[in-house]
Amino acid sequence: MFRKTPSKDRDTTIFQELKNELYPHIAGINGYLKGLIDRHAKIIFCGMLLLIVTSFILTFFVLKPDSENQANNFKKELKAIPRELSNEFSALQDLTLRAAKIAELKAEIERIIAQDSISKTDSTYLEKAIEQLQYFNNHSNEN
């Protein structure tokens, strides 16, 4: 019952046998796909370009990442990392969030400064934004 059946050819491997069994099916599928691609090459190429352009537009103009949501997800992922690396990642995350906040503040300041007349709310926001930028600048000089 548990006797090994001797093979006629000792050089035959399982991969060769699988290739012999599956090659006709794979060759048929390969031929069909090659014919399909040859017949519809322009449509496939245009589809690929459309996907690339759509991906670019969605990534950079439509889908804005929520920094708070990203921060929460990042903190969850950090729990699985050893403590030494966790501190480094936390510092890196803080720097990234600061850089994003500074860029946001600078963009708002430039937008307000570019206006011909400034309202009271814009003036108040401008003062607070400049104070925050000075805080970030002083805080980064200390480190």
Question: Can you describe what's shown?
Answer:
The protein is mainly α and 143 residues long. It contains 5 helices and no strands. Helix 3 runs antiparallel to helix 4. The longest helix has 32 residues. The chain is elongated. The model has no long low-confidence stretch (mean pLDDT 81).
What are the SSEs and their pairings?
Elements: H1 14-39, H2 41-62, H3 67-78, H4 83-114, H5 120-142
Jot down its keywords.
elongated; single chain; mainly alpha; 143 residues
What string gives the helices and strands in order? HHHHH
* Contiguous helical run count: 5
- Radius of gyration using CA atoms only: 30 Å
* Beta-strand residue percentage: under 5%
Low-confidence runs = none
The chain-level mean pLDDT equals 81
Assembly category: single chain
User: Major sheet: size, sense and barrel closure?
Assistant: none
Short description:
With 143 residues, the protein is an all-alpha fold. The chain has helices spanning 14-39, 41-62, 67-78, 83-114, 120-142.
